[in-house]
Fold this sequence. Notes:
five-stranded antiparallel sheet; 15% strand; globular
Amino acid sequence: MTHAEIEITAELVRDLLRDQHPDLADHPVRLGARGWDNQLWRLGDDLAVRLPWATQSADALLRKEYTWLPALAPRLPLPVPVPQRLGEPSALFPRPWIVTTWVPGAPADRTPVTRAAEAATALAAFLTALHQPAPEQAPAGRDRGGPLADYSEGFAKQLATATELGLISAPDAVRAVWEDAAAAPGWDGPALWLHGDLHPANVLTADGTICGVIDFGDLFAGDPACDLAAAWILLPDGATDRFHAAYQPTPDAATLRRARGWAVARALSGILIGDAGVHGRPGGKATWGPPAHAALRRLIATHR
Length: 304
């Protein structure tokens, strides 16, 4: 992570709006969250400003959302942050930024799903609506979405690191889930629109169920198994069967095997990020650990 050299403040956000979108400059501004790629600042009650601050790739991800998400959002059954305005690099701030709609709710890494049946149905409906054939010019995935075998070396390194840190009690069982997934037949259907990053911090909850999905920076076209991994990552014990029954078209056995592979990789990554947060290491987020450990436990238990 390379944090922005310019400190982002409420006054800077107001100055940027006055400079490029003056009709929005009088709305109250307050900090919403500091994410992996961007800072999020509330703009009144209904809007938010997202500014890149911690990764060099954030600029391209914001532009991608601005280009593609407004056309996809109307067909989605859950609220998503729809881009409204684009801010271009300037003397005030050297990177692009966007104004989006605000989606209320609490991140699932802080307020997990408790109403399993409702959440499974909501997630299935969302992904059924999103997973439609994408045009040829749709973006490709960054470090995800290809054949699982291509990521085996990185997975093995993460598993070794987590095991050495004492975070994994059954590394052979974790490895077995991955190896089975990597050996599954690949996706031979059309490239479908995917969210690409459905971990708990990017899914919002209210009243125990899923109420919104945020951060479409990894939006791309590819194998739906990458998103179907979310059933193990986001839902409580016993909810995956309901999710798979509700999602259409019903996933075949090979797709579910690949989805389990993406899920175990995401869980392992979340465990390492969570541990880094507990110990104050850069890039760490302590709230990512508990849901990742729960997901890994579910994946191992259902693989046996």
